[in-house]
UniProtKB/TrEMBL annotation:
Highest taxon listed in the record's lineage: Bacteria
Segment forming the signal sequence: 1-27
Signal recorded as keyword: yes
Entry protein name: Peptidase inhibitor family I36 protein
Keyword line: Signal
Length: 179
């Protein structure tokens, strides 16, 4: 199966080839129906430049790890959740099913959720994290963009709560106390 970079190189080559033609009329500087003709070295240079520009643009938009295939954002507008809870896993979501800021249930209802172990970051699984789960029966302490937030107290609750995060927000789970 072709990779994204091979598709982009092929597209750049086709684009460059369609911009010029080697017809005798075009070589004389008259319009050939596509564009004015250029010499072979100019055409190759143009093809290289277009390839580099397309590949550079794709490197910005498509990250190099597997999460790229599942969701999309452009840095620095990607949400992230880092787990520094001191031993607990945290469930994060690479999707969000509606416009609500809080969803009170154990299962979010979208197909891209994963447990992130302590000491790991959610963007290792999904490029853009859209929310995290504060577990029922626990108190979850967290920071949003470096600012300590009110802990989410789910002690005695019958369901967990999912908390939506914005595109440019970095959340650090600083502690989870259960029981």
């Amino acid at each position: 199966m072709p990779t994204n970079s091979s598709r982009l190189r092929r597209a750049a080559a086709v684009l460059a080839a369609n911009m010029v033609t080697a017809s005798p009329a075009a070589a004389s500087g008259t319009y050939s129906g596509r564009a004015y003709a250029m010499g072979g070295s100019v055409r190759r240079s143009l093809s290289r430049v277009l390839s580099v520009l397309i590949l550079a643009g794709s490197a910005i938009l498509v990250p190099a790890h597997s999460a790229a295939a599942t969701d999309f954002c452009v840095e620095p507008l990607c949400g992230d959740v880092d787990n520094r809870s001191g031993g607990h896993q945290i469930m994060v979501a690479g999707c969000w099913p509606n416009n609500e800021s809080y969803i009170y249930k154990d299962a979010l209802g979208c197909d891209r959720t994963v447990e992130v172990p302590n000491g790991r970051d959610g963007d290792e699984w999904y490029w853009d994290i859209d929310g995290f789960r504060a577990y029922k029966g626990c108190v979850t302490s967290w920071k949003k963009n470096g600012v300590t937030q009110t802990p989410v107290n789910r002690k005695g609750a019958s369901v967990s709560v999912w908390i939506k995060i914005s595109n440019d927000v970095n959340v650090v789970i600083t502690g989870i106390t259960c029981g």
